[in-house]
Structures are given as structure tokens and as C-alpha cells.
């Protein structure tokens, strides 16, 4: 068997985007080794270029007629393409905001970006993995790099604490997940491919077996840890508070998106027989996440902790789409994650900028910021209001679509709860806006009083500014001009065959050609 | 013809919004440029409105005109679909008029003027959007769009307790408005076709229990905004803490969004449920009137008193809506327009007073008629209009509603007598609290504690102009009601006819509510008497 034939059989072209990321990673590691410290000037841009190239490669693979590759281990269908795109984009934006932060913390930039690209690689593979071993390995790649990143500022004891906490809880959750997976492997008679597992279980008539239910619960526990859904969220606030902020940004968007991709694929491919059970478990998770995340966020005094709880609540909203289980439901998840990427990363960019200038992230220290830094105030306000679902910002449309899909699928209680908790969330988001905008000059906090003059020409500040403006523009306009994003989300679901059997017929035709898709416009 | 092809309504909605976004670009000049800019935009939009209506709107047609519809998010079934009919038209014009005047009233805003005027213009867009949206999701979007601007306008430029008031406002309104979304989803997804188009939703047939639930949801949403008695507590805080120009808009326009919604959705789209709910609305209306009037009397703060008087006046709108008569529903619209003008003028004048005395506590004022005769005269005129002095618009509005409810053949005589009597008690209470307000503020010996800013003195020409602009239509409508009624009466006649059509069938199906007339037969759809009756007053 010659090499070309092997490549052909494996259909290895589908992982071209991952290949690009991997090559970028190599270039960075080797380049750093050869050039030394001065490499940090071009490394982040190389990484971003690599990630954008990966996104372009993903775009070119859109609507691939032959998505199954590596003998069924990897499925490069449109669903995975969208999720891989989300993860790659979120990393690109995260790198923009991390340059200055890492410089200022006095640690090496190249290693940080290397680890982050590894995590991205894990997340991207996870989005397409359709076989248990691949899932586990990519999940671990993502997790272990995340542990490393959380402890990256190693002189900061809180970062160490966060890393240790994350590692311990993460390891145990991985153990639980692995146990669930092993049960699945055994019950299906030694199958590792998700679709084969489903049919083997159906053939053996095991859909009511206790073992399968236990395996389902354990697998969901592992996924819920990744998407930080309550009650598997306990690590979130502490890790978010202690970790370097760009890492938090990645964990809250990229890592979460990978978790949701895994959830969609696992539940639909491996557990189609237990649809009632997994919808029930996810309903419980969603209810707990929405209530707990949004209510506890009210009491937070630290911005990072507030965003941590808010991200738990947001995960609860996204789960409504998963529970809906319809084509519109999955599409709404994707749409929401797309806009969530911009608004949440925008909020974190502002947070980083504020922390860099003042050295604090207490909410009370934001008071009166409007007088000193209008751009930062505007961007943070827009992003937070968008997270709260205020029109005409992107988050409003995202939430409307989620609730729309949930209502259409008959999840009335969940939608109502989502709406009520949204009102709660408006309160804590607008509290920050009020701090910044409403406070009188004499009520200015000490941090704002000593606010340094805004200087964009320091090293690493330009990318931060670019990230700020990019997320601001995307958050403001992605809602009003959301049609391409909707088309993208819908067509990715409509073309994904694994989701078709359980999909309830949708009311609209999502047959707009892929050329119209918005993958390009997001950049 | 060219002028019919221009997307008038879209232009009218988007002009202030786009103009607001351009505000950071204009030069600073201590806020002097920006206020001219905002005023210019306000006037331009008002002129645009008047011109579009003048050119393309036929008052004799009760259906939607100037309609535009573009698919916005077809995946959700959401369209950018706007149109005006007799119900929207007076309120759109009212919005343009009041907002422009309130921009002029905000001439002295020196704190963050750019932000202030940007928010005012955003609110302008949102309000017009609410009145012309023909898609329920678009309606919800516009409804929510106004939240944050109002929140910021109250919490930055308000009085002592402004942050509390603003937070209360946003939480109440946001919590209330989720019911609009729920109702929209429920109606849109009922049946096979998902559509948010209001006209289509109105034609759909829903089961009775479903319709009642949706009606209740919308009633809560609009009840918070109108406000209806147990949901009203945000209003006195918000209206009294907001600065005068913002209170003008809050009382003048925002409350009307709820009245509009009640007629547009609850009556037009859910007429069957309306038949069941109408007596409750009438009772709530009476409660509003009496409770609002009594509570207003107990207030010591000038603006709080005016705020409670708004609650009382909106009670009349509820009674009109519940009346099942052309007169009543027409009266409800007229009362909204009239209250919009009156409340705006009173809040504006209280702001003028506050600028000079720096207090709103009436006990600390007194004898100010000496120092400020013009303010006194204008204030008196506004108060007279508010207490429904004949010859002013308040009188016409309230009288039409009384006529509507008493001539209604849908209720039994006992119920009508009680409602009318109690509402009449409210009408008697109104002069009591308004005249006592005038007495405390302007009559008697000058309170020694009061300090009137000397350099301001009596009302300036700008202030007289604003008050006169508001008082003129008040008197105009009072003298010649057709001025206002002609804009909507074709439509309200149609609405009344629609809701009366279902009246006998619904009553026949269900056991009759004891509140309805026991001798109820299918009411004859009489010839529109409204003009005759109004004109004869």
C-alpha cells in the first residue's frame, strides 16, 4: 500500500485545518527555540495567521461530501466545521488579548501560545471526534493544556491554586467520564465508534439496561464539567478568579464550545435510544445552571467571579437548544455560541485592559470609568448588555433564537425559566454599567482616580485594541445583520446527517448555498 | 408616484437612531452644538412624519397604510414590518411632538450632554418603532430597546433617589415584558405556520383557554407599563426621580405604549378573551382612578402627586377599552393623546419650578405666584386641563369614556352604575388634589424658606414656548375634538365593531358573567354616533 493510497483511505484531507494549526504550533516552538527571546515579537501573529488559515481551510471544506475520515474516528461534517471554526476564532481573539497580559506578567509568551494552540487542537479534534478513543484523547489534550495554562503565571499563588483545583477536579471528572465510556464500550460488545455503539445497543435490546443509564449519567457528568454546568460548576469561580485572564476567556468560550460539540455528538450518535433520559438529565442541569449561575452572580464583587457565574448561567441557556433536540434547537446553540464568542471575549478583553491599567478587578473599582476611558466603558457596556440580552445587540437575537427553538419544541417551562433568569441577569450586568457610567466624578474609585493615561503604543497594546474594536463591532452588528450567521448555523445543522434521524421537520428551508455562509464575515 | 415608494416609516424610525450614533463625531463646544443637533433631528423627524402622513395617509381608511415589510430574519419568521393605522397615527405624532419638545426642554443639560441627547434620540426611535411595528418580535425588540436609554436617563440625570428608581423601573419593565415574548411565541407557534405578523395572528383561531392565558400574559406586560393598580409601584418613583424632560417623555409617551398594546393586541388579536376580561379591566380601571386620586392627594412631593394623577388618568383608558363601544374605545385613544399632552406640560412646568426652587416638597413652597406669574398661569392652565375643565382635551376624553361605558349594552345596569359612580368620585377627587397643589405651591404668603433663583426669575421665552406648544393642542382638542378624533375614529369604530361581533357568541357559549347585562342580545351595530355626540358637546 503506497502512501497516497493510505492518505486516500484515511481521508486525511479532512483534518487539514488541524494540520495547519499543528504546523503553526511547530513553527512557533521551533522558532522560539532557534531565535530565542526576540521571537515573541512575531510569534503571536504567526499563531493568529495560522488560526485564520485554519478557518479558511475549514470554510473550503464546507459541505464536504465525504466527511468520515480515519476509518470513522473523525467526522468532518458541517456541524464539526462550525464548532472547529468557533474554537479557532476564539483562540485567535484570545491571543490578541493575551500578548500584553503575558508580557506584563513576566512569563514567556511563546510557550503560552504553544500551550494554547495545543488546547485549541484538542478542542478542534474533539468537535469532530466520533469514536471513543479519539474523543478521550482529544478531551485530554484539551484538558491537560488547560491545566497548564491556568497555572501559567507560576509566581502568582492564586494561579497555582487554580491550577491545582482544576487539575484535581478535572482528573476526577475525567475518571468518571472514562468509566462511563468503558461501560459503553462493554455494553456495545466492544465497539468504539459512536454510531456502531448505538446500533449494537439497539440490536442487543439493552436500551433499558441500568448499565447504559449509569454510563449515560457518567458521560454527561464529564461533559457537564467541561461546559461548567451546575452542579458540576464548583471549579469555575475559583479557577476563573485565579487563572490568567486570557486563559479564563479561552475556557469560557473555546473550551465550552468544544464541550457542547461533544455533547451534541455523543448524545445523538451514541444515545439516541435514551433520548428521554438524556433530555431529562440535561433539563435538570439547565435549570440548575440558569438559576444558580444567574442568582449567585448577583452577589459577586469581583468582575472575574461575576463573569464566571454568568458563564454558568449562559451555559444553562445554551442547553435549552440541546434539550429542544430539533434542528432549530441545535442551530440556535451554534448561533448563540457564535455571538457568545464575541460578546464574552469582548467583556474579557475589557477586563484585561482594566486590570492591566489598574491592577484590580473589583466591580466597585470600575465606578466613574466613563470619565477616564470612554472607549473601554462603551465596549464593556455593550458586551455586558449583549450578554444580558438587550436589543439590538447580538445577544438579544441569540437568546430569542434559543427561546424560540425551545418553545417550538415544547419546552415551555425551560423557556419561562430562561426568561426570568434573563431578567435577573440584566440586573447584575447593568450594575456594572451603572458603576461605570452613572457614578458622579466625586464618587470615582481610587483605581479610576489614578487611572493612567490611555496609551495604545506600548508593546502588545495594539492587538488588544484590535480585539476590543473587533468584538465591539461584532457584538453591536452581529445581531442586526444576523442573517448570514443564522444561515450558517441552520445549514450546518441541516447538512449534518447524524442529527437527521431524530430531527423534527423544520418550518423553513435552509437551503441557501454555502457560498453565502458567513464564515468569512466573522473574521 | 415617487413619494409612495419612499420607505417613510423606516426612515422615520431609523433617523433618530442613526443620528444618535453619529453624536460622538460632532464637535464638543460644551454641549451647545449637540443640543442644536438633537433638536434639529427631532424637528426633522417630526416634519418627516407630518409630511409622510399628509402625502400618503388617507384618514378615511381603517386599514394599515404606509406599510413596508422586509424579511429580516426569515429563520425566525421575523420581518421588519411597519405600518400605521388610526390607532398608531395619533400616538406616532404625539411621540414626535413630545420628544421634540422635551429635547427643547432639556436645553440646560450640562452634565454629559452628548450621552443625554444620544439616549433621547434612541428612545425616540424605539417609541415610534413600538407604535408602528406590525411584527410581534419587532414590537418586542422595540419595546426592549427603550429600556436601557430610560434606565440611564433616570439614573444619571435624575433626582436624589434616582438609582433606586431607575433599577426599579428596569426590573419591573423587563420582568413585565418577558410576557410579551411568551405571548408572541405562544401565538406564533400555535398551528402549523410560524408567523409573527400581527394581522395573521389576529386571524388565527385559538382555543378559549389558550386565548385567556395569552390575554392574561399580555395584560401583565402592559399592566406594568400602563400601569394597572398592583403593578404600578415603579411609576411614582421613576416619574418623580427623572429629570423634567425625561418625565415628559415617560408620562407623555411611554405609558401610551401600554394602552396602545392593549388595544392592538388584547382587543384586536384576542377579542374572545377580551369579552371575558373586560369587566375585570373596568374594575381595575376604577381601582386605578380612585386609588390614584386618593394617593395623589396624600403626596407631599409635587412630581409624585403628578405621577399618581397619571395612574388615575390611565384608569380611564382601561374603562374605555373595556366598554365595547365605539365611543369608549375612541375615548380611550383620545384620553391617551390628551393625557400625553397634559402630563408632559405639567411635568415640564414642575421641572421649571424645580430649577428655580430646588425643591419639590410642596410644603416648602408657597406664594410663588408673586414671583413667577407666567409659570403660575401656565401651571394653572395645565392643572385645569388635567382636572377635565370643559373646553380642554381632558374633559372631552373623560366625557367620551363616560358616555361609552354608560351607553354600553354589554354590561348590566347595576355594574355600569357602580363603575360610573366610582369613576365619577375619582373625577371629583382630581380637582381636590390638583387645586390643593396649586394652592400650596403658588398661593398664600411666600414661604420664608423658599429661595427662588433670582437670575432665573420668571419663565423664559423658551419655557413659555414649550408650555404654549403643549397647551395649544390641549385647548384645540377641547374646543374642536374632531382635530384629534378624525385621525383615529374610522379605526376605533372598526375595532369596536370587531369586538362586538364576538360578544354575543362568546357570551352564548359560556355561562354569562353576572357583570354582563342579563338582557344581553346581539347588540345592534349602530351607526357611528361618536362624531355627533362629541361634536354636540
From TrEMBL, chain A:
Catalysed reactions listed for this entry: a plastoquinone + NADPH + (n+1) H(+)(in) = a plastoquinol + NADP(+) + n H(+)(out); a plastoquinone + NADH + (n+1) H(+)(in) = a plastoquinol + NAD(+) + n H(+)(out)
Tell me which residues make up the NAD(P)H-quinone oxidoreductase subunit 2 N-terminal domain. 12-99
- What is the protein's species of origin? Gloeocapsopsis crepidinum LEGE 06123
Query: What's the EC number here?
Result: 7.1.1.-
Q: Which domain of life is it from?
A: Bacteria
Originating gene: ndhB
Cite the record's note on assembly: NDH-1 can be composed of about 15 different subunits; different subcomplexes with different compositions have been identified which probably have different functions.
Kindly provide the name given to this protein in its UniProt entry.
NAD(P)H-quinone oxidoreductase subunit 2
Q: Which residues cross the membrane?
A: 15-35, 42-61, 81-102, 109-126, 164-186, 206-225, 278-299, 306-324, 330-354, 375-397, 409-430, 466-486
Automatic annotation (TrEMBL), chain B:
From what organism does this protein derive?
Gloeocapsopsis crepidinum LEGE 06123
Record's bilayer topology term: Multi-pass membrane protein
Predominant localisation class: membrane
EC class (word): translocase
What top-level branch of life does the organism fall under?
Bacteria
Is this entry keyworded NAD? yes
Can you tell me where the transmembrane regions are? 6-27, 34-54, 87-107, 114-132, 138-157, 169-190, 210-231, 243-263, 275-294, 306-324, 336-354, 375-397, 417-435, 464-481
The catalytic activity, as recorded, is:
a plastoquinone + NADH + (n+1) H(+)(in) = a plastoquinol + NAD(+) + n H(+)(out); a plastoquinone + NADPH + (n+1) H(+)(in) = a plastoquinol + NADP(+) + n H(+)(out)
Give the matching InterPro entries.
NADH_Q_OxRdtase_chain4 (IPR022997), NADH_Q_OxRdtase_chainM/4 (IPR010227), NADH_UbQ_OxRdtase (IPR003918), ND/Mrp_TM (IPR001750)
User: What is the name attached to this protein's record?
Assistant: NAD(P)H-quinone oxidoreductase chain 4
Describe its function. Answer: NDH-1 shuttles electrons from NAD(P)H, via FMN and iron-sulfur (Fe-S) centers, to quinones in the respiratory chain. The immediate electron acceptor for the enzyme in this species is believed to be plastoquinone. Couples the redox reaction to proton translocation (for every two electrons transferred, four hydrogen ions are translocated across the cytoplasmic membrane), and thus conserves the redox energy in a proton gradient.
Residue ranges the record marks as coiled coil: none
Q: Which gene encodes it?
A: ndhD
Subcellular localization is given as:
Cellular thylakoid membrane; Endomembrane system; Membrane
Residue intervals of the NADH:quinone oxidoreductase/Mrp antiporter transmembrane domain: 133-419
Q: Which UniProt keywords apply?
A: Membrane, NAD, NADP, Plastoquinone, Quinone, Thylakoid, Translocase, Transmembrane, Transmembrane helix
